[in-house]
Each structure stands twice: as structure tokens, then as C-alpha cells.
Amino acid sequence: MPRCPVCDADVKLDTTPTAPFCSERCRLIDLGRWLDEAYAVPEKKPQSDEEEGDE
Q1: What domains, with CATH codes, occur in the chain?
Q2: Per-residue pLDDT, 49
């Protein structure tokens, strides 16, 4: 059974309307973490011309 990413509670995906979260509270906590930039998607830094070997 999947677990809530915020509080680690069991989540029944077929009966829980807030899946993958166990509740609306956990869903909003997760949203707040994204908005506060506690989570971030890693960004690839572009290589400089010297690192690419195009001289």
C-alpha cells in the first residue's frame, strides 16, 4: 500500500480523493513546501564553451 509523502500514513488510492496524500491537510503542506521552495527540481547547468571542447 502506498504511503503519504508528508506523514507516511497508509493511503488507499482507490478510495482517497486526495491521493497520493492521506488528507487535504497533507496535500496543502506539500503545496506550501513547493511554494516556499523547500523542494526544487534540479537544473542542469549549461556547459561553458571551454568545457565543450569547441575552441
Answers
A1: 1-40 (3.30.50.10)
A2: 64
